[in-house]
């Protein structure tokens, strides 16, 4: 009886009930949409960052994190790599040689981060391959070739085919100068990355830094599903018995990126919490208005012997009906909006006339993030 009375009561003032349900549904739709958008941005930030670096998991020398240097390399990577490639959760593995140096041209010299990569693997995993503006990305078999950022190319007055001299120290501490040619120029959208990153083929990097074919500063692992990170780390540790090697998640290799994600996620949930509080006050206001308007009705019911507990249960059921209807409508609309966002994306170019090559990134946030990535590469 209480359920029937509650259902009939909420529709006695149809307009008020519909407005309350609409308010709840709209608030929930907005919350779901922005949570989906925020998580999508976070996932894209992580995906772009880790794929530009070593991947979701990195195997490196245990002392490399404290003082990155090219002489802190790991050996026997071919054997370990074959075993990791056989894991079901692994999408790809990649060898990296990372160092610092100076890029020289007739126009001047600039300090750069030098990254030796496997061209075929990098083309399938790194975002750089999708952001070439001149020339092409590196290919297997390339020797003495390099790709660099557009801002760095402008500083050194370089174009496709120009000569570039890299000056650095090898693993034995010897000063090395190597001549190469610019094969392509990329533009990520950040002056920090576009102005300091140089990629060269792995074999060329091994010669430059004096490493053997089975040696590299990092062995990276890109996962099919990031949710399997911890399980895969455990599996790699079970087969990697070298005392000097460390198996690290991307959060340890890129702590600035992890902190950025935690900060953004926390701010999102704070905003959503405030939104829900506002919605709850809206529902409370509706129920209070309903109670005030029905004072005579409740007085009659009490005079007929209705207990106060029954009236309270009726009001609770009324609020539950309104909440359920609003939540169902809100989750349906919010789920549809999130699905549309996942399938079709969201074009923000109209709000960014200056242009950003990485979709869904606020330009200043991406610049801060890329600065953190570059600092990790150069000075971690």
Automatic annotation (TrEMBL):
It holds the Pfam family MacB_PCD. It comes from the Bacteria. InterPro entries: ABC3_permease_C, Lipoprotein-release_system, MacB_PCD. Residues 271-344 form the ABC3 transporter permease C-terminal domain. Its main location: membrane. GO terms for biological process: lipoprotein localization to outer membrane. The chain crosses the membrane at residues 269-288, 315-339. It is a multi-pass membrane protein. It is found in: Cell membrane. Residues 17-238 form the MacB-like periplasmic core domain. GO terms for cellular component: plasma membrane protein complex. Keywords: Cell membrane, Membrane, Transmembrane, Transmembrane helix. PANTHER family: LIPOPROTEIN-RELEASING SYSTEM TRANSMEMBRANE PROTEIN LOLE (PTHR30489). Belongs to the ABC-4 integral membrane protein family. LolC/E subfamily. This is ABC3 transporter permease protein domain-containing protein. It comes from Syntrophobacter fumaroxidans (strain DSM 10017 / MPOB).
């Amino acid at each position: 009886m209480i359920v029937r009375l509650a259902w009939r009561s909420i529709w006695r003032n149809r307009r008020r009930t519909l407005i309350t349900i609409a308010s709840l549904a709209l608030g929930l739709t907005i919350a779901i949409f922005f949570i989906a958008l925020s998580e999508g941005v976070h996932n894209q930030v992580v995906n772009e960052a880790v794929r530009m670096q070593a991947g979701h998991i990195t195997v490196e020398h245990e002392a490399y994190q404290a003082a990155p240097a090219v002489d802190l390399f790991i050996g026997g990577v071919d054997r370990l790599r074959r075993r990791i490639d056989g894991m079901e959760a692994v999408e790809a593995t990649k060898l990296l040689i990372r160092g610092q140096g100076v890029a020289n041209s007739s126009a001047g010299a600039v300090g750069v981060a030098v990254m030796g990569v496997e061209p075929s693997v990098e083309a399938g995993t790194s975002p750089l391959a999708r952001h070439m503006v001149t020339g092409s990305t590196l290919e297997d078999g390339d020797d003495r070739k390099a790709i660099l950022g557009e801002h760095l190319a402008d500083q050194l007055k370089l174009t496709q085919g120009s000569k570039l001299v890299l000056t650095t120290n090898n693993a034995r501490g010897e000063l090395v100068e190597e001549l190469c040619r610019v094969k392509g120029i990329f533009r990520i959208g950040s002056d920090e990355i576009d102005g300091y990153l140089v990629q060269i083929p792995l074999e060329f990097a091994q010669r430059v830094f004096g490493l053997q074919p089975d040696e590299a500063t990092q062995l990276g692992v890109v996962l099919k599903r990031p949710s399997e990170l911890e399980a895969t780390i455990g599996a790699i540790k079970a087969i990697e018995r070298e005392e000097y090697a460390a198996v690290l998640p991307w959060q340890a290799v890129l702590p600035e990126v992890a902190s950025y994600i935690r900060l953004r996620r926390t701010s999102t949930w704070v905003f959503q919490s405030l939104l829900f509080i506002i919605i709850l006050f809206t529902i409370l206001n509706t129920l209070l208005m309903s109670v005030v308007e029905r004072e005579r009705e409740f007085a009659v019911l009490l005079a007929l012997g209705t207990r106060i507990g029954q009236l309270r249960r009726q009001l609770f059921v009324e609020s539950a009906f309104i909440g359920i209807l609003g939540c169902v409508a809100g989750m349906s609309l919010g789920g549809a909006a999130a699905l549309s966002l996942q399938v079709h994306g969201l074009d923000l170019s109209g709000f960014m006339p200056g242009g950003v090559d990485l979709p869904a990134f606020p330009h200043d946030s991406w610049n801060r993030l890329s600065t953190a990535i570059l600092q990790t590469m150069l000075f971690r």
